[in-house]
Structures
1.
Amino acid sequence: MADKTLKCKDCGTDFIFTEGEQEFYKEKGFENEPQRCFECRRARKAQRMANRDRY
């Protein structure tokens, strides 16, 4: 396995899906590659947590 360059579906920047991350995804049984860069994933998670805390 080699590092892959992917494009974030939110911000459009290229990001690296490292060999280590690919192995982690495989171990966890994830079939899809990430669609968002680290910053967008973190922002999306923070938004979900904020919405959850409101209720």
2.
Amino acid sequence: MIYPRIDDLLKTVGGSRYTLVIVAARRARQINNYHHQLGEGIGFDEAPPPLIESRSKNYLTMAMEEIAGGKITYHVPA
């Protein structure tokens, strides 16, 4: 069984698959940048650490788990 379920993720982003893809991809990039900054000793201004504990090492999975857990918020620019 796939966790988190796509149906649950779509509910958290208003039912739009496009929005889900954009939010998850941006957060996965932030998590990736965070892990690269760890080795370089750079501050965490632009790349906050993962907001959940995950068994997965895949950044996109971590991002989707954060979305499912309600840890990620987004806004649509006007």
3.
Amino acid sequence: MTKRILIIDDDDGIRDIVAISLEALAGWEVLKADSGPAGVELARSAQPDGILLDVMMPGQDGMETLKQLQAQPETSAIATIFLTAKARSSEQKRLLDLGCVGLITKPFEVQKLVPQICELLGWLLP
């Protein structure tokens, strides 16, 4: 069964490069949302296997989006990985303490994205 990943990021370029990479390198289906509210709604309706969530977005940031995902029965069990440019360990610890399964720092290497996601979600490499 094909894995489904939802990427929630306000940057069109990031969404597109992640989608192209995951589809080409892993054969996963990638769903895209450009804001926290759109991502929460898409997660509720599509039930992806995992979520890549940008931390810094205008309006509703990734931390608030994660809280909303965790608060809803339909989405609370979906594993979420933060995408972040925050490199300091204190900032990363604060994000991990919110309940995500891990972090991938930007800029990321496209070739390493699939192995990083698999490791964080406990999936076998495709």
4.
Amino acid sequence: MEQEEIKETKKEKKSKEKELIEALNLKVKELEDKNLRISAEMINSLRRKDEDNARVMKYANESLIIDLLTTIDNFERALNIETSNEDITNYQKGMKMIYDSLINTLSKYEVSVIDALDKEFDPTYHQAVMTEKVEGKNSGIVIEVLQKGYIYKDKVIRPAMVKVSE
């Protein structure tokens, strides 16, 4: 009888050890899965951070450029003044050189004017502030640009303010 009890005790012990091994294997698998998820989250987080940094670097000059657009608008207004006074005309020539220099500098930084006149109205690039019925023009065509719009790299930083035909 003692031998049978020892055998049963050994069987019970082996059964308990087997259950313990299975439980430990299950726990190891759970921890491996958790580790993989955490690693994937870390990689995704680093990727998002890199994308955010790239976006910040790509558009780093945006606020400066937007501030310069007002100055460019003022230059354009001053250059469009009609005058017969030679002093003012000479002054305008100097302003035109400064204006051209500003425009060239902006183009180096991938700033471009939105071509709007006689184009179909597109709310992505245009902001309609007025409409007017015009003979010979289809509806939805830009008939006047009231304020130039600008694109910085691939992003609209200021839509063109336009008058659209009805």
